[in-house]
User: What shape does this take?
Amino acid sequence: MKIPSPQAPKPPRKIGILPNLIFMSRWLQLPLYLGLILAQCVYVYHFWVELVDLIGAAMGNASSLDHILDAVAIPGAIRPEKLNEQTIMLVVLALIDVVMISNLLIMVIVGGYETFVSRMNLEGHPDQPEWLSHVNASVLKVKLATAIIGISSIHLLKTFINANLYDAKTLIAQTGIHIAFLFSAMAIAYCDRLMIHPGAHGDEPSDKPSEKH
Assistant: This one.
C-alpha cells in the first residue's frame, strides 16, 4: 500500500504594497505605548515619594508630616496637628489608587501591544499573565472597565470618609458617576458574551431533528 506523501506547505501569500503599508501602520502605536511606560515610571516615583513621607511622618519628621497633611487636606476641614488614623487611611487609599492606575496602565500597554501591534511570544513563560493567554479587544475592554470601577470605588470611599465636608449634590453626583461606570461595565460584558456565545439566547438553531407526531 502506497503511503501518500505529505503535501508541501504553501508558500506565504505575497502582500501588495498598499495593504502592506496599511498593515505596517500599526507600528505607529509603538510610541504611544512607550509613552505609557514613561507615565508608569512617574507613578512609581510618586508612589515612593508618598510612601517615604508617610513613614517619615510616622517617625516624627516635621516636613514629611506637613507634606502628608497638605496632600490629604480638604478645603473647610480642620487641619490635624499630628498623624491620625483617618489621615493614614486617606494616604493609604491614595497609594492604592496609584497601584490600581498602574495596573490599568499595564493592561493597556501589554494587552494593547499584544492585540494591536505585534505578538510578544510569551507562551510558556513562567511570568505570563493569565489573562494575556486569551486577550482580545473585547476581553481588554471588559478588564479595563473593571479596573476603572475599582479606581472609582477608591475615590468614592475617600469622599465618604469626609462626607460631612461635602454637600449632598457632590455626594449624589459621585455616586451616580460610579453607578454609571458599573452599568457601563455590565453592558460591555453582556455585549462581549453575546458575541462569544450567540446561541445562548436562542439565536443559534438547534441541531436536534424535530419529532414528527
